[in-house]
């Protein structure tokens, strides 16, 4: 569950840092004459598209990989510590329940 939250946070960070919004507006004016006089027309074209900052994306991906490795290392260490604790607890239980030992 913790890994999933870390990955979700990284994804939000990458999206927020790497993507910006870029707007472009093109205006063209055409003039011409006909039998009644001068005619002019204006055409406005506006587009909005996301622009991706590749340097920021690469840096965010690098950070995400490092965070993933750190999370895997932490999980591995925790699993090892848990296994060691269980092994020690098991040995203590065996020592306390060992019926082959006799006390004099």
Write the layout of secondary structure elements.
Blueprint: H1 2-18, E1 19-34, E2 37-52, H2 54-97
Antiparallel strand pairs: 1-2
Task: Describe the fold and architecture.
The chain is of the alpha+beta class. It has one domain (12-96). Helices cover 59% and strands 31% of the residues. It has helices spanning 2-18, 54-97; strands at 19-34, 37-52. The chain has a two-stranded antiparallel ribbon with strand order 1-2. A hairpin with a 2-residue loop joins strand 1 and strand 2. Helix 1 runs antiparallel to helix 2 (54-97). The longest helix has 44 residues, at 54-97. The radius of gyration is 34 Å and the shape is rod-shaped. The two termini are 53 Å apart. The model has no long low-confidence stretch (mean pLDDT 75).
Instruction: Please mark out the parts with pLDDT under 50 across 5 or more consecutive residues, or reply none.
Output: none
Tally the structural domains: 1
Helical/strand content category: alpha+beta
For the sheet with most strands, the description reads:
2 strands, antiparallel
Strands, total number:
2
Helix count, DSSP H or I runs of 4 or more residues = 2
Whole-number radius of gyration? 34 Å
What shape does the CA trace take?
A: rod-shaped
Average pLDDT reading? 75
What is the terminal-to-terminal distance? 53 Å
């Amino acid at each position: 569950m913790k890994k999933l939250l870390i990955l979700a946070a990284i994804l939000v960070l990458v999206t927020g840092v790497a993507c910006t919004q870029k707007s472009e507006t093109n205006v063209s004016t055409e003039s011409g004459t006909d039998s009644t006089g001068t005619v002019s027309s204006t055409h406005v074209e506006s587009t909005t598209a996301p622009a991706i900052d590749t340097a920021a994306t690469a840096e965010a991906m690098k950070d995400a990989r490092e965070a993933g490795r750190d999370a895997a290392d932490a999980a591995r260490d925790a699993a090892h510590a848990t296994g060691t604790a269980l092994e020690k607890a098991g040995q203590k239980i065996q020592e306390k329940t060992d019926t082959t030992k006799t006390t004099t």
